[in-house]
Every structure is written in C-alpha cells, then in structure tokens.
Structures
1.
Amino acid sequence: MNFDNARFITANFSGLQGWKTVPAGAVLFLSALWMNAQTGRTRNLLPIVIGFGVVVAGYLLIGRYYRRTYGRVEPAGRTPMKDVVFAVLILAVVIGALRLDDGTLRALMAGKAAQFPVSMYALLFGSVVLLDYIRNCRRAGVKNLGIFPAGWACAGGIILSAFLPLLGDGPAALLGFRSVLFLVFAIDGILILLYSMAGHRFLARSLSGALEAERGQPV
C-alpha cells in the first residue's frame, strides 16, 4: 500500500466501510420498484418505515463487523462534530430534494408540466457525494483525486441520472416503469450498491496488502 493510499484510508476509514451502505442502496432500489407498483392515491407507507429501520439496523450491525474485523482508526486532528454537521446537511438536502421530486412526479402523473425538468434528488445527492469525496481527499492531504475511481464514477452516474427525465417516459416505459423518476431512483440504488462494494474491496485489498508487506510476503 503506497503512502497516498495509507493517508486516504486513515482519514476515511469509516467512509470506506462499504457494506454499511449496502442496505441503503438496496432499500432505495426496492422502494423504486414498490412505488412503481402502486396505483391510486392510497398507499401503505409501512414498507417505507420498515425499509428505514432496515437501513439503520444494517448500518449499526455491519459497523460492528468492521470493528471486529479491522479494528478502529481515529485520525489525528479529526473533528467529529464537523462530520455530524455534514451528515445532517446531507440528510436535509436529500429530504428537500425528494420533496421537490415528489411534486414533479405528481405533476407528470397528472399529465401536467413539471416545475423542474430534471430529478433534483439525483442532481443534489450526486453533487453532495462528489463534494464529500473531494472533501475526504483534501482531509487526507491526497493530491491525486483519482485515488478511488469509484467515488467519481458513483457521483458522476448519479448526477447524469438526474437528466434522464429530459428523455421523457419512453425509455422508462420500455423497462416497465410508469415514470422516469422511478427509473432514476432504481438506477441510483444500483449505483450506491456498486459504490458500496467498491469501497469495501478497496479497503480490504489495501489492508491485506499492507499486512502481507509487513510480513515480508510478496504483495
């Protein structure tokens, strides 16, 4: 493991624990399929509540797995309060953007013109993921922003998915989606899953390589 990798992992040890975000990606994808299957005004919100519980429980349980398997890393000079504030801002952005997309969805389903021609959720969430990646690199003192390509790929894919509504509902209909926004949510769920697996693989391979090098074995 080279010096930049070591600094990047040390500064972003928690963020690279990819399995912790697998439940979130899976729930987003399944929620898109569930919303796509709903008809009429009355909707049972119990699956959404259960999904949120699964995300929280999964995050905590998988976090325990990482602590048992890889231990804990506390970067010097780290300020947890900044991370908490940043997480709250992300949550506020996501909730606000989802409300905007809900208004767009209602307009489209009613055959009316939408206020926003793109998915504000995907656009804002993808931008936050990108800014967070750049922030993590700077926090680690890493000049090579391409050190973790999956970070760019995930953020870029989510941002690009925001513009799918410009193509209309035609492409979404071919895939069985009643609205292009449901397709956007499903794609974003898949991208989060891929990002999660890439993060875990990057962390596991880097740490196993460091251990082999320390034992004098070929990496």
2.
Amino acid sequence: MTSVFGQVSYTVQDELGITAPSRVPFTSLDTTTISELGDMATTVGGELDLVTSGKITGVRVELYFPVGSGWKSSPTAGSRVEQTGLVNFFNATTKYRFGIDFPALADSLISGGKILIDSGALRNLCNLLIAGVSDDNTTFCNTAQQALTSIADALVSFRKHRAVTDRRTKVVE
C-alpha cells in the first residue's frame, strides 16, 4: 500500500458574509474509500466548528497524484495558457450548457479561428468525458451533477493570466 497526499478545505463565513478558507493537508492510504475520506472531513469539520466563531459553509477534499509518466516533459514552444479551448456540453436534464476550459489549446486544433472538434485528440477527450471511465464507474457531469451527454459547441477563447506573466517576466532595458 502507498500513501496519497491530499487536502481538506473548509470555507468559513463570518457575520458580514465574508468567507475564508481553512486548509488541512493530509496523507491517506491509497485503499481509503471516498466514504472514509468524507467521514474524516466531517470529523475534522466538527472540531473546527468548535474553535471558529464563523459558520462552515463548505467542505472539499482534494487528492494529489503524480503526473502521468507518458505525458509531455515540457511545454510545446509557443504554448500559452491564455489560448483556451472552451467546449460546451449538453446534459439530459436541462437546456443549459456546461463549459469546460482546456488551457494552452494546441495550435494544431485550430483552423480559421475555430476549434477542430470533429476528430482527433480533442474529440477523443470529449468522447471520454461524455462516456465516463467504466473501470472506476466515473461519470463526468456539470456542477448540478447532471451527466454530460453531447457536445453543444466549442470556441477559442482567451483567459487572462497576465498577472502571473507580469510577475515572471523581467524587462531588460
């Protein structure tokens, strides 16, 4: 058995409605179930509730895994996270679309300013998100927990990340 690193985060709200996070890192065995992680988060949250005068309004458990060994070892030259592929999906319950951003969209997936969605790597990724991962019974959904059923549309968008870029860029005069 190996350990998995994670973090349980609580959102605490004061009487003015202002929220702040309280984060607690942890390690757990890789055999720990989701139910057991939920129990742990509830136990810690109960103790946190006794020491804060604010109200706990949310809890989230995140797990961190190593990057896949077959993935890129470095970014492609010219890649920019601001160039984003936004793919909107339908669900079977409502008329509302749900968008998922893919930062640093590869130039090879864009033609005439539009995303090439009909075939290739992006279509394979979208098909996986629609079908889910059967090995572990995962269904991908919108924030209302409604399963994604088909692609609605896709577009190239630009999400600003300049504050980070400005801090990392050194101007030589």
